Amino acid sequence: MSILSDFSRNLTVTLLLFGIFHFSKTDFLKTTSTTIKPPVRAPGLSLPLPNSHPPKCTREVPAIFSQYEKDVPIVGNSTTNSFLNVIEVCCRGFKRYEYDWSMCVPDCGNMCLQNGFCIDGGKCMCFDEFVHNYRNICVPTCPLGCPHGQCYLNGTCVCNEGFILDPSKKFCQPECDPICGHNEICIEPNKCICADGYAKSIRPDSTMGCQPVCIPDCGFGHCIAPNECKCFDRYEKRMNGTACESPCYMRCEHGFCVNQTTCICQNGYKYDYNTTSCLPDCDDNCENGICISPGVCRCFNGYEHNGIKCSAICENTNCGYYGKCIAPDICGCNIIEGRFKSYQRCEEGFCNAKGRCRCKEGRTRFINQCVSTDKVTTYASMNPYKMNEALINEFNLLIGQHFMFRNEQPNYFYG
């Protein structure tokens, strides 16, 4: 621990010199031997340790999350499912380093929020002159400070009324009479609460005391310790999961396998047959983007948020009073009445008062866009797939919308 101790001491001095610790009037702790203010830093200090190189893990995620262009679907790199991408992530117990995402650092979760830093194994190491108190929080010791007590010149601490020194005589802890029950801690004089990871039943007549809490629920099992489930017979935990589920062939991420063929999705998610998982659900408000979390839509490039939906941006094209921006830098003219209301594409042009697409000088209309007159004859041979797609869209827009093919809804631009 000598290397870590030296690292801690040097880190403390560095943070003090650069003002990373910050204070307020409430940070002064009562003492008779020092006026040093106990440092309080931003939550969650976790740094790469000397000669520490945590391993990386891999994870499969929906490839659609990597799609940023509307008409350019992503093919995943997974060897088992082309709708999945294999990405590199930090292994359990580690997280990305805030200042260098190529590195992983220990993750202590909600622990180690002040006066210490996280080390391998998710353990919090307090800075020099700090120790873990009864709430597992790093607090100062004399002569730096003594919460709920007073430091004296000989380096000892005398606790305030209602508090007593812990067995190590390093800090003051509250005294409860009678003593707290099983899985309880004393947080104030004569006040007990459930320890972290435990809770009492919401039933007022319950006599079970503080019981472990598992989030999410254990499912087909019971909670034996905080976030630790023991499964019933014939049920199992999925990879990197804590709940007990029925064995099933589906990935069912963000869901729960109730039997071999049924995946029940969590609230805010819906089942996706391509990935056999539950993907975030944004209802019908993410047509021009990707739903990355429940109710949160990330717009494609060329689109921006307009309320809860994503609308196209026409920065280099002025659609005018009679037109509407229906795709990035593409205007649409005149709502076509029919089974579906749609706009006729007017790429590289503008809409007149009659709702018709007019091209700028030197260009002529060709199918659904305005092109230079000298390129009309070569356009078909140079862009056969694009031309065929344009012809199909125009046919669907003007004629095909009056028919239904294979009971499928035509792909139009909606107004």
Gap from first CA to last CA: 67 Å
Number of strands: 35
Largest sheet: 3 strands, antiparallel
Average of per-residue pLDDT values: 79
Q: Return Rg in Å.
A: 32 Å
Q: For the largest beta sheet, what order do the strands appear in spatially? A: 29-30-31
Give the count of helical stretches: 3
Parts with pLDDT < 50 across at least 5 consecutive residues: 1-42, 407-415
Structural class by secondary-structure content: mainly beta
Q: State the helicity in percent bands.
A: under 10%
Keywords for this entry:
single chain; 415 residues; mainly beta; 3-stranded antiparallel sheet; two-stranded antiparallel sheet; 3 helices; 35 strands; 9% helix; elongated; disordered C terminus
How does the SSE layout of this entry go?
Layout: H1 2-17, E1 56-62, E2 84-90, E3 94-97, E4 100-106, E5 116-119, E6 123-126, E7 130-132, E8 138-140, E9 149-151, E10 157-159, E11 163-165, E12 172-174, E13 184-188, E14 191-194, E15 198-199, E16 211-212, E17 221-225, E18 228-231, E19 236-237, E20 244-245, E21 255-259, E22 262-265, E23 269-272, E24 277-280, E25 289-293, E26 296-299, E27 303-306, E28 309-312, E29 323-327, E30 330-336, E31 342-347, E32 349-351, E33 357-359, E34 363-366, E35 369-372, H2 376-382, H3 384-398
